[in-house]
Structure formats: structure tokens, C-alpha cells
Amino acid sequence: MTDRSPSDRTPQFDPALARGLVSRRGMLAGIGATGLATLLAACGTKGTAGKANPTAQAATDRSDTEKVVSWSNWPEYIDVDDKTKTHPTLDAFTKQTGIKVTYTEDYNDNDEFFAKVQPQLRAGADTGRDVWCSTDWMVAKLIRLNWVQKLDKANIPNAKNLQDTLVNVEFDPGRQFSLPWQSGFTGIGYNPKATGGRKIETYEQLLTDKTLKGKVTLLTEMRDTVGMMLLAMGKDPANFTDADFDAAIKEIETAKNSGQLKGFTGNEYGKGLASGDIAACLAWTGDVVQLQADNPALGYTLPASGHMIWSDNFVIPNKAKHKKNAEVLIDYYYDPKVMAQVVDYVNYISVVKGAEQLLLADDPEVAKNPLIFPSEAVLARAHVFRGLTEEEETKYNKAFQALTTGG
Predict the structure, then answer these.
(1) pTM of whole model > 0.85?
(2) Tens digit of pLDDT for each residue in 152-175?
(3) Is 111 exposed, middle or buried (0-12, 13-18, 19+ CB in 10 A)?
(4) What is the SS3 assignment for 390?
(5) For the structural domain made of 34-183+310-371, what CATH number should be given?
């Protein structure tokens, strides 16, 4: 993709358009654009999808006798009734199906969550969860390890509403094991009170601006932190070499060793950014939008050099006790009317066909936000991190872990 000139730079967000919305990693909704969907379709890790072994993967499904389902998800990633603090779409699901949902926001970071469930998955035991939402590359890893089950599409007839260009993704052709939940961008968040009123618009500023020293955080997600660094270096995250990766790590390491970085975080950076303890950071769009509802001065930039794009996906782990109930839940959210309700609240990119049209009809104000309906210039600067072989993933993760932990 071609970098754009500064005149094409993404406009600063208008806090008046934030409308107090909350979300996890992006303030985007209902785009449905072919170009963007094609970008998302390229996400993942190289490797053939694992061959399912139903005997090893499946537990006795208790769905018919136990009307429950346990869903782990990222924080603030679903619609919320601000008065009751309940989730309207989940309440409606229970009323419609009789299935009660245990909804837990305990997914803060892909590697952190993987560490929680790995012992059970490796032992062939129940994780205590029936479904969760993992980012593309983690889904690829789970499939490769044969730790997630094939979806029974007979229980998910609304899967037909998946955006056409997302059906055959690199890491899961035909979507046998996964279905997307939401998508979004990675950029830079900053607190003007902590930056002396200056806008932070480049990765170079994060790593070298001495006025930010000790008040910068990057993400524990390798593909976001290294991907943004590659873009700043003029490299394409979808087509880079080992030497490019090593050079990116070195640039970040230099900043870390100089004391420029406060550390690396999952999406818990919000509190520090709001208080000014963190002056600027790599951030997922929607987190900053949520903070802007209380502090409209907070800023967010998609750098002219480019930004990362990703999606999070439903998967059902091995030995889940309520697989059918989980599939009924996924099917429910693939109803365009339901997805439009979620998207209207969290403002992510909708991966369900028809949700955009409903959203435009029901809440045209949403369409005024340039990140809900990005310009071609914004889409042209959106990049995915290329697929990795198992060997590359092991090597790159080791180098990145040494960077983030010092070990």
C-alpha cells in the first residue's frame, strides 16, 4: 500500500461524535467495504487448519439439559444499559432461547488468556468456557494445535450473513472453526495535558520525543507493536523479512533502554492515559473513544505512515460442555438486527451483512463519524500482519517476549 501525504492524514476525532460509547479495540462500525474486508481476510498465521478429531475434542454436550453457556470476551466489547449495567442483547437472547449466559470480561491480552487456558487444553480437559473471542493470529494457533472444535453450521444458519470476503481467510478457509465478532484499527492515543498540548502523530514521536520520556506505553500484542514499527520504517507488515523484524525490535529496544518507555500493556492503559500518567501510547481506537466521553481533550491519531487492522473471532474450545448452546449464541449475533444493536453501541466494524443498512436507517448520526465510515485514504493506510509459519511465530515471539519482559 502507498503511504499518504500529511494532507491525507486522518482528521482528529470529534469528541462530540463519541456519544459516550464504549468499546474494546476500535470505534468502527458497519463499513462492509470490499477493500477493508479483503484486508481482514488476509489476517492470520500460515499453516493448514487442524484436522478435527471429534472424539478428542468433544465432550458430552449438555446443551439440551443445561440451558447455560459461558462466554469469555474482552472488556467493554458489547452493548451495555448504562442504567442497569446489564447487556440488552444478552438479556434478549436469554428471553428468546431460555439459555442463560455467563458473560466474563477476562480476555485482556491474547497471550495472557492463552496462558490461562493452555494447561486445560493441553491436558484435554474442560476450560470452564464454552466460547471466547480470539484475535486472528491466535485463532490460527489454536487451530494448528487442534484445540478448538469445528462449528456445526446447522446450528448457525445466520452464518450466511458473514461478509463474503471474510469466508475464506488464510488461517481458516471456509470458516470451519471460527466466525468473526468485531474488527478495528490500532493507532496512537495521547493526553494533551501530559504532552504540553502537542498532538502525537507518529511512532517516531513515541520512541524519541524526550518530553514524553518515561510516559509512553506500547502494546503486548506483537503484531500491533512491531507492525506499527515496520510501517514507521517504511516496511509493509504484510511483506517483511527476518532482517526487517530484527531492525524493528532493535528500534523499540533502543527506546526502552533509553528510559523512553513506561512499559507494555494490554488494554489496561486507559486509566493511565486518562490521568496523564501515560502521555501517549499505542492504543485501540474504541478504548480512547470511551475515555473521550469523560475527557474530550484526549486525542487519537492514525499515523500517515499507516495503521494496523485486526478482527476478533468466536471459537469453541475442546471439551466445551455446551457447544450447541454456544453455536446458538453465535447464530443470534449473526442476525443483522442484533449485530446492528451491538455495533450501534460499540462502534466496531460490522462483519455481518445487513447490519450497516439497519444502522444507517436507525442511527444516521453514527454515519457522520469518519472512522465508522472511513475514507479511502484511511482504508489505504490499513495494514495486516503477514501470516507466520510455526517456526517464525516461535522465533518472533521469543524475541518480542525478551523485549517486553527483559528476559
Answers:
(1) no
(2) 999 999 999 998 878 888 889 999
(3) middle
(4) helix
(5) 3.40.190.10
